[in-house]
Design goal:
This protein is an alpha+beta fold. It contains four helices and six strands. The strands form two sheets. A three-stranded antiparallel β-sheet has the order 1-2-3. The chain has a three-stranded antiparallel β-sheet with strand order 4-5-6.
């Protein structure tokens, strides 16, 4: 389902998606750790790679991909995930559940959302 409007809030690192019935705000961190790229999802079932240290990630750019998706460039250099409209809507509609699964996976791996280091310009 294609959103009626997309707004990027750079300071708060939120992507706002407005649909006919609902409006969702998804954090850059949430989108980064759920990127549909093979780097994150793997190449088959059970091959996903747990993303750690992404709490401070932000949006670098958002690029339309035809009429079916957007590609998000993140501040950590990740830029290979193409977010289809259906995938974005699914992430938005199930954010609470997907986020809890992610937090549980971090905990089980004794990993953190916090970056190991912060690069200074």
């Amino acid at each position: 389902m294609q959103p009626l409007e997309i707004k990027v809030h750079r300071k708060s690192a939120l992507l706002e998606l407005r649909y006919a019935v609902d409006t969702f705000s998804l954090s850059a961190e949430y989108l980064r750790v759920h990127s549909p790229s093979a780097e994150v999802q793997g190449h088959g079932p059970g091959q996903s790679v747990l993303q750690t240290g992404k709490k401070l990630v932000s949006f670098k750019d958002i690029i339309p991909q035809g009429h079916y998706a957007i590609r998000i460039e993140f501040s950590d250099g990740h830029d290979s995930g193409i977010f289809s409209w259906d995938y974005l809507y699914d992430l938005a509609a199930h954010e609470r559940d997907y986020w809890q699964v992610y937090i549980d996976r971090l905990s089980a791996a004794n990993a953190s959302r916090e970056p190991l280091f912060i690069a200074l310009n």
